[in-house]
Amino acid sequence: MTIIQFDKVTKRFGSTVVLDKVDLSISEGEVVVVIGPSGSGKSTLLRCINGLERIDGGDLRVDGLSVRGGRKDIRAIRREAGMVFQQFNLFPHLNALENVAFGPVHTRGMSHAEAHKIAEELLAKVGLSDRKFNTPAELSGGQQQRVAIARAMAVKPKLMLFDEPTSALDPELRQEVLKVMHTLAEEGMTMVVVTHEMAFARRVGTRLIFMENGLISADGPPAELLDNPPNQRLIDFLQHVE
Amino acid sequence: MEFDFSVIVNSMPALMRGAKTTIYITVAGLIGGVITGLLFGLMRAYGGRFINGIALVYIELVRGTPIIVQVMFIYFALPVLLEVRIDAMTAAITAITINAGAYIAEIVRGAFLSVPKGLTEAGLALGVPQWRVLAFVVGPVAFRRLIPPLGNQFIVSLKDTSLFIVIGVGELTRQGQEIMASNFRAVEIWTAVAAIYLVMIGIMTLALRLVEKRMRIL
Asked: pLDDT tens-digit profile of A145-156?
């Protein structure tokens, strides 16, 4: 069943067209890996899905709700679509547990006790039970990103958006984050992942999208696209990242 | 000349009354100033063009004129314009409120805008309403960044109360001036007055350090 539907979505920053009439349909359970050179529009594509960027043309529906809808619709979409950022963006004045509990408390009006129980479970899942009382400043980058994943999961989203989740991490810290993402994928979570991790794309992704200049220029099973790139631009790009 | 301590001892009760008045004006004025500053600072940071414009006019009017002119305007000119009576104490507190409010507004704006945009986005991305993100994410982080410059403004405002000598409020400097006028012991009196200011500001600085320590600056 389709959960994300791009219908000729256009997004401009000033006079620059960042997304150019993009059509894209993503079904439940898919793990879509989005790659492309910087400035190709892949982060914007992701940020349009949860309304962090407003679209200028076309329509974009998430679980039946349009991102062009009112504030209430946007908030509903955001609760369905968890997001993980390149810079983690954990709340620095709260500890790991409070960070994860933040969503349930402030969107669903859940009691602190209840929210903390959910947060404990999620922290255990990302392997950070022993760090729940630490603040972000006391955690490594990899740990911070795992807390950020738990935080996004706490509002029980139907899909997860990852915006270059490992790009700000040292190579030895990337694996712990990728492992958590792998587990999520195995549990059937619908995921859209902007990344340069080609090994992850091949192993975990069910679909690979290559973007350039605001357009989707290749779309298919990861192994197929990576082994036999259909166009010269993708060949060039893959030479740069691998 | 001989430094006569008995002069200081004898004038202590009057000087302490003055110090009390100084503290009273400072505390009352700064409570008003913080509220005003918060309001106008948030108007500057998040208001639309019109709201922002109003706040900007207020801030520039205050920053562009000396506080001594402001208090004279409140005490002498405003009663004529509005046909009301304003006592010196009210004028003094109002002057600190309006003056500190403008500077604090800029501090508040700076602190809120210095909070990384990513934190707001992270809050919004969870589906949390904008006002809650402001109140529970941006606000608390900004508040911690606010404390050092705010402390600075508190100290400036406390010292500014000495200018209210011109409207005859019985604050510390005024008390010193009056005692001096009767006994001409300038060295003793102004030494004592300076020392009392130092102690008041010293205590304030210590208190601010304590708050800073308890709240990690993020």
From this structure: 999 999 999 999
Contacts 24+ apart (CB under 8 A), A69-73: A71/B129
CATH of the domain at A58: 3.40.50.300
CA distance B189 to B172: 11
State which residue of chain A sits closest to B139, comparing Cα positions: A93
Question: What domain range is A231 assigned to?
Answer: 2-91+159-241
Q: The complex's ipTM?
A: 0.94
Inter-residue long-range contacts of A77-80, CB under 8 Å, 24+ positions, other chains counted:
A77/A49, A77/A50, A77/A51, A77/B127, A78/A50, A78/A51, A78/B124, A78/B125, A78/B126, A78/B127, A79/A107, A79/A155, A79/A156, A79/A157, A79/B126, A79/B127, A80/A157, A80/A158, A80/A159
- This prediction has a pTM of 0.86
Q: Do A82 and B126 touch (CB under 8 A)?
A: yes
Kindly report, residue by residue over B88-107, the tens digit of the pLDDT: 999 999 999 999 999 999 99
In a domain, A114, yes or no: no
Q: How many domains does chain A have?
A: 1
The fold of B17-171 is MetI-like fold (1.10.3720)
Provide, as residue numbers in chain B, all residues whose Cβ is less than 8 Å from the Cβ of A78: 124-127
Chain A nearest-CA residue for B135: A106
What distance in Å separates residue B129's CA from the closest CA in chain A?
A: 7
